[in-house]
Write a structure and sequence with these properties.
54% helix, 278 residues, 7 helices, alpha+beta
């Protein structure tokens, strides 16, 4: 029953979105098709409600609290990857709003040392956002000139506009979330997509070590985490014990070595080294 509910949900949501686009565009499907689609959607949502209710009650009978039972129900109906992607996208948009409100100033706790990294990639990301915006306008004008119906133009326009929003949100989230070195921990971050906390007592060594051939922005391999900007890393941190890193899509891994990029790697390394004993 759970598999059927999941499959039905994944089928009906895109269908309802397509139907909404058609109606907004002024295209009204035949009454029989419209009635059939709405009936099917109502049946699917009734099925989802029934399955969710059974899962919630089963959790409550097992002794879980209301919040825990609701969370378990959502976990069963919606895969964690889907939920994480939705949360990350929402946080990215929130970061863009906060970036405008704070005029790009990150929030750095008192006594902490920030390690910005966004400047190295900001120019490229802004160029990409501008190119996406130009593409959005050009594609829409082309579709209009070829007489493409609004039912096709509107989804294309929304997808292109979302691409622009995503690029700007990435710029904002990276600018607002630099790496941080505090008295208690090192936080290695990449926008809303990565936030690794490393206790200071686990840091065995820290050094400036430049690498210019990183293949991915976030990569974990053989117990080593690499967080690159512009294919570069320039700070290497070795740990005395493993820490758990949560990857952008929710996967977990144990790492004992962390390499990342900072605009001023020497300042980050100085902040990571123990203060001299008087």
């Amino acid at each position: 029953m759970l598999r059927i509910a999941r499959a039905a949900l994944y089928a009906v949501v895109p269908a309802e979105c397509l139907l909404a686009v058609l109606l907004v565009s002024g295209i009204r499907p035949p009454a029989v098709l419209l009635a059939g689609a709405e009936t099917a959607a109502a049946l699917v949502f009734a099925l989802e409600a029934a399955v969710a209710g059974r899962l919630y009650l089963a959790g409550r009978r097992a002794g879980a609290g209301r919040r825990a039972a609701l969370s378990a129900t959502l976990d069963a109906l919606v895969p964690p990857v889907v939920r994480r992607l939705v949360v990350l996208e929402a946080r990215g948009v929130a970061a863009l709003v906060l970036f405008v409100a704070r005029r790009g100033r990150p929030r750095v706790p008192p006594g902490a040392v920030a390690g910005p990294y966004a400047g190295e990639q900001a120019a490229l990301q802004l160029v990409l956002a501008f190119a996406l915006a130009v593409e959005t306008v050009v594609v829409d004008l082309l579709l209009v000139s070829f007489g493409v119906p609004a039912a096709v133009r509107l989804p294309v326009l929304l997808i292109d506009a979302y691409g622009v929003l995503f690029a700007l949100a990435l710029v904002a989230s990276c600018a607002l979330r630099p790496h941080l070195v505090s008295r208690d921990e090192l936080r290695v971050r990449y926008g809303e997509y990565l936030d690794l906390r490393v206790p200071r007592e686990l840091i065995a060594s820290a050094a400036v070590a430049r690498s210019y051939d990183e293949k991915r922005v976030v990569a974990v391999e053989d117990g080593r985490l690499r967080v690159a900007v512009g294919s570069q890393t320039n700070v290497a941190v070795e740990l005395s014990a493993p820490v758990t890193v949560v990857r952008p899509l929710g996967g977990r891994a144990e790492v004992t070595s962390v390499r990342f990029f900072a605009a001023d790697p020497a300042a980050v390394v100085r902040a990571l080294r123990p203060a001299p004993v008087p």
